[in-house]
Amino acid sequence: MKVLHQFFISSIVVVFVGCNPQNKTSEIKKPEAGITKKTITFADFKKIKGVDNVQDVPFQLFTKLDSVQFFAAPSKDAAHLKMAYNKLDNYYGFEEFDDFYSIHYSINNNISNSIEAFVLKSEFTAAFELTLQGVDLYEIRSSTFKKSDDFKNKSFKKFGTITEISEQEFKANSKNRIGETLVKNPNIRLQDDNWVYIENDRKELITQHENISTESGPFANQYVGRSSFLNLEVFKENSDEVVDSFYSFYNIKNAVMFELGTEGYPQILPTKSWVTFISSNNDVGSNFLITKYLPQTKKQENLLYVNFTNFKIADDKKAFWTDNDTFYAEVYPLNSASANGKKQKTAFIKIQLKANLF
User: Which of 71, 96, 195, 263 allows an S-S link to 80, with CB 3.0 to 4.6 Å?
Assistant: First the structure.
């Protein structure tokens, strides 16, 4: 009996110890300590060669947040640090994951001190995903109304309205375009890499309006067509080494002579004697210009110039006017760019000038 009694007491002790609340608390804390994330610094990220040529970057990333997170690996459970957003910082994207982008980031904009980090897709927008949502289309850098320059007013509202429209609305209104269609003159032909005007016994060489050479050779003249209203032939001057194009207008009636030009595809309105264009600005945004053609002097009188800041032009040739001083164009959000086989997203705008603006 003594042996059984002793065994029973030992069993009670074992059960009592197993139910001790102090031991239970200790066991719960162990896994919590296991998932505590380490506080990391830039030293914990992989060092890489910095970006010295933006052209080598697959895509850029943009954010509207005040702060973003840098992860050491493409996992939400990975160690990470919080970064204040600096408008001077560049986020160069190199690879895309399910929830992350990998970036190459230069600390304090020092190329020799660069790291690879992983950022959440929810905190950034890739260049090929940019849209006009939330963009102030009215914002301008400067304007010129007739002969008056204005560098203080930063809004288009004094001239009219500008809104984003659907592609369907853009295409529907294109059927009502009122601009002149440029038609090629059969008397202008390409001979020995030069454009010439041939009529009866007359043969005239058409040269570019400026003698500009690039690493790949001189500007290439591309014949666009004839404006019957202006009685001028239009050529597009461009080069692989020069981003911008220029449209030259030539009078070939008596002698080949350069008369006027535009920086974008000319949208000509015979009913108003307007020569207009919209084109991307090589500095920021895009240019919108309306000029009046004066046949007596064969010159252009500037009516309105506006430098919009928040979008670029996708295809200036597709722009058009309709009645009631309404202009339509296909555009890209600022900083938009294609990457990795992904096309940038186009948008469409409508510019409505104020009644009797001129």
Answer: 71
